[in-house]
Amino acid sequence: MKHLHLVPAGTKFDFVGKKLMFFAFSVALILASLGLFGTKGLNYGIDFKGGIMMEIRSKSGPADIGALRDQLGGLGLGEVAIQEFGEPEEVLIRIQRQDGDEKAQQTAVEAVKDVLKDSVEYRRTEFVGPKVSEELFMDGVMAVTFAIGAILIYIWFRFEWQFGMGAVIALIHDVISTIGIFALLGMEFNLSTVAAILTIAGYSINDTVVVYDRVRENLRKYKKMDLAELLNKSVNETLSRTVMTSVTTLLALLALYILGGEVIRGFSFAMIWGILIGTYSSICLAVPILTYFSIRRSDDEDEENSEIEKVEGEGAV
């Protein structure tokens, strides 16, 4: 029975030899992401900046976005964003938070309904206040920070601190680059995006652990092999599994992105980017960076091998 291999068996790509090129690309990507975040900023959703969100469906066929903008633009509600939401008949209306309490927000909703009347079906109306949005933002930041910290501790205990540092550097690279791509494209950054980032962290660390397991196994198996050669061997031995897992996951995510509708499009896009950048960082960052750390090889096994060699030497005599 033949097995599908997206990567031929026995590959010998020199990932460690090209580490400076990978590091330069990653540094440029991180700097560009931080620059975009600092200058352009993120398009925060209502989850993080507060406001009113209304989802409507036109009863008379495809919605006329231009006419809706004209109708709602003169209500004096401040910034009003209108976009098609999935099907041509469905529209998402986002209105900036109104000055005042909850009553002021309800007044704005009623003003919109007075203009649109019964020509549309009101499917969803949500309001997030400034205090709640600030708390949600801080909770999102804390969730990502705690996740990375927990991953560092896990890798530290499972392997050594050098492996933990390599994994966390790769994870931070993935998170910052994801923020950068959202800043570049102006896509809405909300709680679903934070959930996607946490999922990306889990996926990326899973890939990294698989490669690190092979590195640790080879460290025990090849005592005198040059470290760079050993790291390359470990990555190449797990490359087929890594690529196959990434491709199959991407197929599912592409289906979600194309067919899932506007509600989960941001989440799907973040996941697609995360799978691509996470696979890259696991192979091209997390492993080559180990060459800058002093990796300890098992002293116990060295002693055991010495005893074996001694016994074999005595037997030869």
Automatic annotation (TrEMBL):
<feature type="transmembrane region" description="Helical">
    <location>
        <begin position="242"/>
        <end position="259"/>
    </location>
</feature>
<dbReference type="GO" id="GO:0065002">
    <property type="term" value="P:intracellular protein transmembrane transport"/>
</dbReference>
<keyword id="KW-0812">Transmembrane</keyword>
<keyword id="KW-0997">Cell inner membrane</keyword>
<keyword id="KW-0811">Translocation</keyword>
<keyword id="KW-0653">Protein transport</keyword>
<keyword id="KW-1133">Transmembrane helix</keyword>
<feature type="transmembrane region" description="Helical">
    <location>
        <begin position="136"/>
        <end position="157"/>
    </location>
</feature>
<dbReference type="GO" id="GO:0006605">
    <property type="term" value="P:protein targeting"/>
</dbReference>
<dbReference type="InterPro" id="IPR022813">
    <property type="entry name" value="SecD/SecF_arch_bac"/>
</dbReference>
<feature type="transmembrane region" description="Helical">
    <location>
        <begin position="20"/>
        <end position="38"/>
    </location>
</feature>
<comment type="function">
    <text>Part of the Sec protein translocase complex. Interacts with the SecYEG preprotein conducting channel. SecDF uses the proton motive force (PMF) to complete protein translocation after the ATP-dependent function of SecA.</text>
</comment>
<comment type="similarity">
    <text>In the C-terminal section; belongs to the SecD/SecF family. SecF subfamily.</text>
</comment>
<feature type="transmembrane region" description="Helical">
    <location>
        <begin position="164"/>
        <end position="185"/>
    </location>
</feature>
<dbReference type="GO" id="GO:0015450">
    <property type="term" value="F:protein-transporting ATPase activity"/>
</dbReference>
<feature type="transmembrane region" description="Helical">
    <location>
        <begin position="271"/>
        <end position="293"/>
    </location>
</feature>
<dbReference type="InterPro" id="IPR022645">
    <property type="entry name" value="SecD/SecF_bac"/>
</dbReference>
<dbReference type="InterPro" id="IPR005665">
    <property type="entry name" value="SecF_bac"/>
</dbReference>
<protein>
    <recommendedName>
        <fullName>Protein-export membrane protein SecF</fullName>
    </recommendedName>
</protein>
<dbReference type="InterPro" id="IPR055344">
    <property type="entry name" value="SecD_SecF_C_bact"/>
</dbReference>
<keyword id="KW-0472">Membrane</keyword>
<dbReference type="GO" id="GO:0043952">
    <property type="term" value="P:protein transport by the Sec complex"/>
</dbReference>
<dbReference type="Pfam" id="PF07549">
    <property type="entry name" value="Sec_GG"/>
</dbReference>
<keyword id="KW-1003">Cell membrane</keyword>
<dbReference type="Pfam" id="PF02355">
    <property type="entry name" value="SecD_SecF_C"/>
</dbReference>
<dbReference type="GO" id="GO:0005886">
    <property type="term" value="C:plasma membrane"/>
</dbReference>
<feature type="transmembrane region" description="Helical">
    <location>
        <begin position="191"/>
        <end position="215"/>
    </location>
</feature>
<dbReference type="InterPro" id="IPR000731">
    <property type="entry name" value="SSD"/>
</dbReference>
<comment type="similarity">
    <text>In the N-terminal section; belongs to the SecD/SecF family. SecD subfamily.</text>
</comment>
<dbReference type="InterPro" id="IPR022646">
    <property type="entry name" value="SecD/SecF_CS"/>
</dbReference>
<dbReference type="InterPro" id="IPR048634">
    <property type="entry name" value="SecD_SecF_C"/>
</dbReference>
<keyword id="KW-0813">Transport</keyword>
<comment type="subunit">
    <text>Forms a complex with SecD. Part of the essential Sec protein translocation apparatus which comprises SecA, SecYEG and auxiliary proteins SecDF-YajC and YidC.</text>
</comment>
<feature type="domain" description="SSD">
    <location>
        <begin position="160"/>
        <end position="292"/>
    </location>
</feature>
